[in-house]
Design a protein that fits this description.
41% helix
Length: 100
């Protein structure tokens, strides 16, 4: 399995109501390539099955979204998961997730 598919498989493990950072997702696949994780999210053509909307920056900021509607849709999806988005950020202390 290539690194991109490993990243997608790990991302699918993030439960509803939680987000993961690019850094944590990279660590989960034993990589330090946080930017590669971002590229994988940007290249995601299957946003229905690969929930890239659940990835945030290390400061909780909501980053771009490759799905239809861009960042506005990402925020809607996060809110649908009962996550609070304030000033373009989520509270990682409340909703951050780490894969072990």
């Amino acid at each position: 399995m290539n690194l991109k598919n490993k990243i997608y498989q790990k991302l699918k493990q993030v439960p509803r109501g939680k987000v993961i950072t690019y850094k944590e997702l990279a660590k989960a696949v034993n990589s330090s390539a946080y930017r590669h994780v971002g590229r994988c999210m940007a290249e995601n053509k299957d946003t229905k099955h690969i929930p890239c909307y659940k990835v945030a920056k290390s400061n909780g900021e909501i980053a771009n979204y490759s799905g239809t509607g861009g960042i506005k849709t990402k925020i809607k999806l996060l809110k649908k998961d009962n996550l609070e988005v304030i000033n373009g950020k989520v509270d990682l202390k409340k909703c951050g997730f780490r894969l072990r």
